[in-house]
Design goal:
This protein is an alpha/beta fold and 252 residues long. The protein is built from nine helices and eight strands. Keywords: GTP-binding, Nucleotide-binding.
């Protein structure tokens, strides 16, 4: 079976005029090295964006800490073109020795960005936690986002004319934040089907199994249902920012 990313639904999100030109989307991944960012991106877009990367030794990793890289890839599905730009922030926070989520550096990072980008928090390597640990951690992260005043992407309110199924799906999405995700670059066999997953002595965790993690929810949101909103909102925020800056310079 051919795997699909699913962005062919994009024409439904925007004016048909843009279909011919194709779409562009920029996604930045942030977090310490080894967290699973590259694997997740590869799993989301089914492309090996990082195939040319070299393995770095420890010393190189340190010097590389906050070097930001950009990968661009054109993908096409059912005649719909998507120009995808991935901004990778390898090893952000590596130099800081702290194991708690939302340490000061993460908070500062998010606060510096939250007016400019739409932040979608994820909980990486969900397969290394038990379901109840995932639940607890999600709760804690949501509390801390609130506590530190970090503005994350807010799902738009459903139109009143949306059907019940859509509303329910949207509600589920909101409640899943931060998305607990699993990434994998390998295809394994589970119950006779070849799926993207991770093989353990006790069994297989499937990336695209909703019972195993929120990967499909995250991907649907990013590419099938909310891509246009994520982009529009960012533009609006850029505009607001410019207006605020102008007001500042006028005051001075
Ligand atoms: P990055 O430095 O954040 O880009 O992390 P990578 O994607 O390079 O992954 C680092 C290591 O974690 C690799 O050995 C991956 O195979 C592993 N890894 C990535 N995603 C997952 C996951 O969801 N679960 C588990 N258990 N390991 C993962
Ligand atoms: Mg990486």
């Amino acid at each position: 079976d051919k795997e699909y990313v699913g962005f062919a639904t994009l024409p439904n999100q925007v004016h048909r005029k843009s279909v011919k030109k194709g779409f562009d989307f920029t996604l930045m991944v942030a977090g310490e090295s080894g967290l699973g960012k590259s694997t997740l991106v590869n799993s989301l877009f089914l492309t090996d964006l990082y195939k040319d990367r070299k393995l770095l030794n420890a010393e190189e990793r340190i010097t590389q800490t906050v070097e930001i890289t950009k990968h661009t890839v054109d993908i096409e599905e059912k005649g719909v073109k998507l120009k995808l730009t991935i901004v990778d922030t390898p090893g952000f926070g590596d130099a800081v020795n702290n194991t708690e989520w939302l340490r000061p550096l993460d908070v500062e990072f998010m606060k510096a960005l939250h007016e400019k980008v739409n932040i979608v928090p994820v909980l990486a390597k969900a397969d290394t936690l038990t379901p109840s640990e995932v639940k607890k951690k999600k709760l804690k992260i949501r509390e801390e986002i609130e506590q530190y005043g970090i503005k994350i992407y807010q799902f738009p309110d459903c139109d009143s004319d949306e059907d019940e199924e859509f509303k329910q799906q949207d509600q589920e999405l909101k409640e899943s934040i931060p998305f607990a995700v699993i990434g994998s670059n390998t295809v394994v066999e589970a119950k006779g089907k070849r799926v993207r997953g991770r093989l353990y002595p006790w069994g297989i965790v499937e990336v695209e199994n909703a019972a195993h993690c929120d990967f499909v929810k995250l991907r649907n949101m990013l590419v099938r249902t909310h891509m246009q909103d994520l982009k529009d909102l960012r533009r609006m925020q850029e505009m607001l920012q410019k207006i605020q800056e102008q007001m500042h310079t006028q005051k001075e």
